[in-house]
Structures are given as C-alpha cells and as structure tokens.
Fold this sequence. Notes:
The protein is an all-alpha fold. The chain is built from 4 helices and no strands. The longest helix is centred in the middle third of the chain and has 36 residues, at 37-72.
Amino acid sequence: MAILLVSMNAIAQRGDKRERIKALKVAFITEQLGLTTEEAQGFWPIYNTFEEETNAIRFKEMRVIRKDIRENLDSMNDTEANALIKRFNTAEDRMHKLRMELSEKLARIIPPKKIIQLKIAEDDFRRKMLNEFKKRKRERH
C-alpha cells in the first residue's frame, strides 16, 4: 500500500511539473510574441494541437525506436538496422511536416514576423529550462 501511495505521488508530482512547465512556456511565448487577445485566441488551440502531436511522436514513437536501438544494437543485422532507420526517418519527417503545417495555419492568424519570433521563443525557452535543470542538478550535488 505504501509503495502504491509513493508511486502515485511521484506520478502526480511529475504531472504537476509538466503542467507548471507548460504554464511557464505559455506565459513566455505569449510575452515574447506580444500576442493580442484576438491573436492568442486563434494561436493557442493551433499551437497546443501541434505540441500534442509532436510530443506523441517524440515521446512515444521515438522513445520506442531508441529503446529498440539500445537493446538490440549489438545483435541486429543490416535489415533490422535499415528498418529502424526507416522508422526513425519517418517519425522525423512527420514532425517536420507538422512544423510546416503549423507555420501555414499560424500565417492566417499572426503576422509572419511573429511566426519567426515563435521559433526563437521556443529555442530560448528550451535553453532557459535546460540551464535551470543544470543549475538545480549542481545545487543538489
């Protein structure tokens, strides 16, 4: 029973962390892009759908592919390696197509300059989160 409670608490905390990070990202992007209320109303549903779809590819499909590589690299033959490369490339291609579709959809809602600012804001946010993670890791040790 205690193990179950600890496990559930860990999962809830992980979910809370994800929600906090998502909220920080929303605030950061909104500020960096200077979205008006009208732009934000059109932007966020499109962007959230994009994030869900790319995260599904990144954290489900790509994770399975990487796991297959780690577990079978030493024993796989060329045919199996080619199949993994093809799966990986297909997933990468789908993520690229989603990014292209995002730009096309957003072009109907926000100016092109804000679409460019979005990419910069995403990169800046990712960099800030990575730096914060490294900082906290150093503080723990």
